[in-house]
Request: fold
Amino acid sequence: MNANNSFWLAEKASSLATYVDGTFYGYLGFSLVLVVIISLLTIFFVIKGRNQAQTISESSPCKQAMIQTGWTALILIVLAGFFCYGLRGFIKLQVPPNTALVLGVTATSAAWQFHYLDGTSPDSLIVPVNLPVKLEMSSADNVHGISIPSMRVGKGVVPNRKTVTWFNPNKEGLFAIYNTSGAADAVLKVLSEEDYAHWIKVKFDPSIGKTPEEYGLYVYEKQGCNACHSVDGSKIVGPTLKGFFGTERALDSAEAVIADSAYVVRSLLEPNVEVAAGFKPTMLAYPLKAKEMNALIAYLKSLQ
Ligand code: HEC
Reply:
């Protein structure tokens, strides 16, 4: 996903990566050293054995036993060290800290869904940097598995069961989330504390950072006005709202009204009192907040 991947492992972006990488590189290095030593010794003894085919080793059984015990003990101690280091990482991986941000995850063959406390599910997993994140996962259909290589976590995600994993991202950026069953992948977005706080704020108040017209468009789409009203002049279920504001509107009752702010508000609160000529009174009432009404009005005004 990015250029920081090493030859062996994905970019390190989690506090737990030290344990995983330490154990991996430790074993790899140790195995390489053993391979070199054993290969060199093998070659040495083959040559020595060929030249001294008739002589048999004279060293005492006691000395041989000591060499063998020492050699075995040395390897045992080194491996026990790796085991303890790996076990520590493994235990840490199994036990999420109770300060962790808890998020629900649902796997399906079509996509990953990430559930936040307020019930929203953005299309990617969005978390702040340096805060432990605990994922409570389940599958809606088949057996899946989540893998986030940069966080060094992977876990089965199965139906009718909750599995848990956690990580503590210590680097901002975009990281890949894979489905080990081969289904759709997703993206993990690690934001700075400020960006995350801003994201949360916008989640709860979508008007932040938007002009009244932009927020109006947001409300228009969110409320589904576009299902019945076009903004390009075409007639769908309801009249088009292109060039609507400020014009005279013919009503079913043969009267006419000026489409001003008050008319828009009346159309939203009591849509079937003044019915546009040629249309059926099928629009439901939209008791929106004043802020949303004003934004909608600003947006409708801009559709000239
Ligand atoms: C289910 C379809 C439907 C939806 C959804 C809908 N409307 Fe309507 N709307 C209509 C119909 C049909 C009319 C015309 C009959 C009437 O005036 O009641 C209408 C009329 C209006 C009018 C008056 C138009 C005129 O020419 O006088 C306005 C303004 C309006 N809608 C705004 C909205 C807004 C804003 C939303 C979203 C919050 C919305 N509508 C959602 C169907 C819909």
Summary: Residues 223-225, 227-229, 237-239, 244, 249, 264, 267-268, 271-272, 275-276, 279-283, 286, 296 surround heme C (CB under 6 Å). The two ends are 44 Å apart (CA to CA). The mean pLDDT is 91. The longest strand covers residues 101-107.
